[in-house]
Each structure stands twice: as structure tokens, then as C-alpha cells.
Amino acid sequence: MKRFFTVFVMIAVVGTVMVSSCKKKPKPLSEIIGRVWSAQLIKHGSSVVYTKGAATNPTPGYLNFRLDLSSPTSATLKEWDGNTFTGQWEVQETTAGNTLILKNLTPQPTGTNGTIQFTINSATETEFVMTRTSGSQKTGGTINNYTLVSP
Length: 151
Prior knowledge:
It comes from Runella aurantiaca. The chain has 151 residues and is α+β, with helices and mostly antiparallel strands. It has helices at 2-22, 29-33; strands at 36-44, 47-51, 66-68, 74-78, 84-94, 97-106, 116-123, 127-132, 144-149. It has one domain: Lipocalin.
């Protein structure tokens, strides 16, 4: 009986090691969001201003919104008003949360000194939810929330 128990424990340990070593490591956040994103649902403050596919939208320009993070360092942001900004992007991952930083944007978006930061609320390879960390002068100083999809 003792021998059976010893063999059983050894099989259990080896099986656990094999299963845990076969688990895939999760992709880095920068790899998950490193693609082109378009608007699905946009809120200026608490007001919904754009819903993809809706018959009418208060801010229809979001139909052309694009956030291109497909290059490991270069970013292009095409805003709802048609303005396009280019620069770099990076992700800062901390225990307090993750932040997307668009920096060295040219031309500089009004009131940003060339940098816009977003809190990353959630991210998968098909949906990316983020909240701007400071008010947007273009939208009256509101803190905007973006639910984006990868087309």
C-alpha cells in the first residue's frame, strides 16, 4: 500500500509539472493592442456621442476615427474632426493600472504639449477600452471613454 501511495504521488507531481509547463504565457499588453483600432462606442463624459452602426450619432465624425498602433513604436491618431496626429506610443504597466501614452504628437493637439494619456480599462485582440486621463479641449474639457474595435 505504501508503495502504491508513493507511485501515485510521483505520478501526480509529474503530471502537475507537465500541465503547468504547457501553459502558454499571456501576450504582452503592447502586443495585444498593437493594431489598428476604430470607434465602437464613444462617450464624452457620461454622454454617448457615437455608437457604431447607429442610425444617428451626435458626433458622426467618429465613423472615421482611427488609432493605429500597428507599429511597435509609431502611432497615428485620426480624430473625429478629421485632424491626424503622428508620434510614438508606449504602454506603462503598473500594479495600479496600465496606461497608454501617445507622445511627441505632431502637430500637437491643442492643450496637450504633444502627449495624450489613457487609462487602459480592458484589452483583447478585438476590443480595447480606454479612458483619457485628462479633459479634451476639443470636447469641452470632458474626460472621454473609448470602446474601440479592431476592424
